[in-house]
Every structure is written in C-alpha cells, then in structure tokens.
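INFO batch 0412 | record 1 of 1 | parsing
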Amino acid sequence: MKNIIIGPAFPLRGGIANFNEALCRAFLKKGDSSKIFSFSLQYPKFLFPGKTQFEERNKKPDDIIVETLINSINPFSWVKVVKKAKRGNPDYVIIRYWLPFMAPCLGTIARWIKKNSTIKIIAITDNVIPHEKRTGDRALTNYFVKACDGFIVMSKSVASDLSQFTKNKNIVYLPHPVYNIFGEKINKEDAQKKLNLNVSDKYILFFGFIRKYKGLDLLLEAMNDARIKQLNVKLIVAGEYYEDKKYYEKIIARFQLEKNILLHTNYIPSEEVKNYFCAADMIVQPYRSATQSGVTQIAYHFERPMLVTNVGGLAETIPDKKVGYVCDINPKSIADGIIDFYENRREKEFTSNIAIEKKKFEWDSFVEGIEKLYTQIKTI
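INFO prediction complete | emitting tokens
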C-alpha cells in the first residue's frame, strides 16, 4: 500500500513534525510505501510566537523521504504539490490538521488531489476547535473538513468537536502512540547530573512551549502550597515562552518561589529531551484545555508518572491513581496530587503500572487503524 503524509517534518521542529516522521517510519517498517510532503514556509514570521520554526539539528533523516514543497500562503506551490502527489499515485493521502490558519492551503490541496482521481484523503485532526479561538475559525475548519473522506482523531473530545462540522461517519479514534524517538530511558541520577541538578532533591517537570491554555500559572500557584514548600519540591520548567514571560516571573516573585523553580525556557533539542523526563519524579500537565498530548506519550515512553487536569483527551490516557493523577483545573487539586505522590511514595507503583499500560499505545496499532479506515472508505 502507498501513502503520502502532508504536514510538518524536518527541518521544521515541534511535536507534529516529530509525529509525522515517526508515523512515516512505522509505515515503512510495515512494508508500505510512505513519504512526507512538508512546508518550505509554514507560518509567516509575524504569526509565529517562538524564536524559530526550525530544528537546531543539521542532519536530515536518512531513513525517510521528506520533500520540502508547501508554502502555506502561496497557491502556486499548492499546484506543484498536487501534481507531484498525483504522479506518485498513492492509495491515500494523510493530511495533518491542527490550526484553522492552515485550512485554505490544506483544504485546497485536498480538493485538487481528489479531483479526477481515486485517491482518498484521510485527515489526522489534532484540533478541530483551537485552544485559542479567533474570528473565522469555524468557517475555515469547515472548508477543510468538507474536503476529507475520513478522519483519525486522537481524543474523544476531538471526535465530538468534529461532529459539529460533518455528518461523515468515517471517524476513527486512535490514541496518540508513544513517542519513541528521543532515545532510551536512562538512570534518574545520571539524567539529573547531566542537567547539573542536586541528586538529593525532588523534581517535577512542566515540559513544552508555554502558553496560557497550558496552565503553568496554575502550577506555579500550586507550588506556593505550604505542604509542597515543606517537602522542598523543585519544579523544572523546560520549554520556550510563546507569550510574555513577565506574567510568570511576577507569579514566581510574588510567592517567593525563586529557589524552587528552575527555568530552562529555551527550546529543548531532541537529544536533550530524555534528560529532562528521566530526571523528573513526575510530569505535570496543568492544562486549561487540551485534546491529546505528545508530552503524555513521551512520559509513557520514559515510564514517568504523570499528573494531568481533567480536560480533553488527557484523562482518557491517564488512569487515575494507577499511572498518575487526574486533577481538577485549580491549584489546590494540583497541589493535592503532588502531595499524595510524595507522601505516599507512589513512584515505584506508578512506574510499574506505566510499563504495562504503555503497550496500548503502539505505532503498529495506529498504522493498522489508518489502513482499516482506508479500506472502509475506498469504495465510497
């Protein structure tokens, strides 16, 4: 079977790019033909909140084909992509959809590929309704959705959102697979030494870019809980600010948390990700809203306990009090989870359970689910 994946990949950075590369490898491992059509321009600079859209690593992956073709705001590039896709004669094209800004580009490419061809369009919809809403989002998403033959969702909340835009029944829920692209698990003490941490301290980790919906401010307020201060728990914040850092710095100063908050607020290169996860006792995701999360699946890979808030698809993948905690979206509930973890010495128990639970999230199962969906829609 042959497919093309349309979405970010090297040299673009971030979770979606990492996912697309891992998915392509999973298809190749199965014996399918797969390659990625990525972006020459993903976002205009004025729309990108971070420092750079590109990976620091210089070496292009040598085990997969990544073709840098798509300019998100240049329709002439869309024509080239469509022609190249049709010449490749794939059975289906997978398009990643995560933001309404991409709808004109990706929706048009989908329509043109389908025109006068038997190629099917399968969308992997990370978000249908974005975390940060803007005027026109629904119209743009509707334009993209109407161009697709079937959909993969990685959380049930996205399936519910999708039902607002289409009556298409070809919607399949497949949990986000475990991220296995950041190396193997290493000893906690070794990881802490690599980050120049005191190996006798307790560490929790907030990982990923920093935006309001991710709730870092809620976690900082939880760190002000007297019980957490008494335990002398340290919070590592590892990720780039995508908004004004002064807001968070003021919270840290107001609660006098400077000694217990370790700010590593630059983009974390892929080769360093394992150090942060393996150094932490628990990974904390205090999100205000969410669909699915790559951070959760990195934690599963490195077998680290997790604390998440009860939003979107997070609770679907974290059995409460088995591999971690599902908390309410407030500092007190988050603090209660952290306290329970340390006072009741849950790390060993949770880690053992994670080693079993993560088997549910294998790439082979994800690929099989996509191919079953294609079989279902190919006669339509």
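INFO post-check: DSSP finds 15 helices and 13 strands in the chain.
INFO record closed
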